[in-house]
Amino acid sequence: MTTKELIYEALNGQLSEASEFVSESGMVIRNEFAKNKRCDMLYEEVYNAKQSLCERLNEEENPEAEQIVANMEVIMRTVAMKMFDYGFECAKMNTMDIHKAS
């Protein structure tokens, strides 16, 4: 597992359900899906909306709703990995001063 994957999985609570994960190097990574954290509450809203949709369609599960949730998780992971890469590039350049080109 790469460093960025480890951080991503720690952020998502996939490594531990604890509110924080401490890496071997001592880096503390907060689980953004821990109970009552913003991502936990938003994910619960997504789940409840999906369940409500299934109830209205009189279905136990709906393939389209499942696909929406699955694709959003892939999108979230893709953006997070890219954000890590850009942050790493900024650190190598020793700058966080990024501006839109005119």
What report would you give on this structure?
With 102 residues, this protein is mainly alpha-helical. The chain has one domain. Helix content is 58%, strand content 6%. The chain is built from three helices and two strands. The chain has a two-stranded antiparallel ribbon with strand order 1-2. A hairpin with a 5-residue loop joins strand 1 and strand 2. The radius of gyration is 17 Å and the shape is extended. The model has no long low-confidence stretch (mean pLDDT 91).
SSE layout and pairings?
Elements: H1 3-11, E1 20-22, E2 28-30, H2 38-56, H3 63-93
Antiparallel strand pairs: 1-2
Helix-strand topology string? HEEHH
**What is the helix fraction of residues, given as a range?**
55-70%
**Structure summary, number of beta strands:** 2
- Give the strand order, joined by hyphens, for the main sheet: 1-2
Cα-atom radius of gyration:
17 Å
N- and C-termini, Cα separation: 39 Å
Mean pLDDT: 91
Concise summary:
This protein is mainly alpha-helical. It has three helices and two strands. The longest helix is centred in the C-terminal third of the chain and has 31 residues, at 63-93.
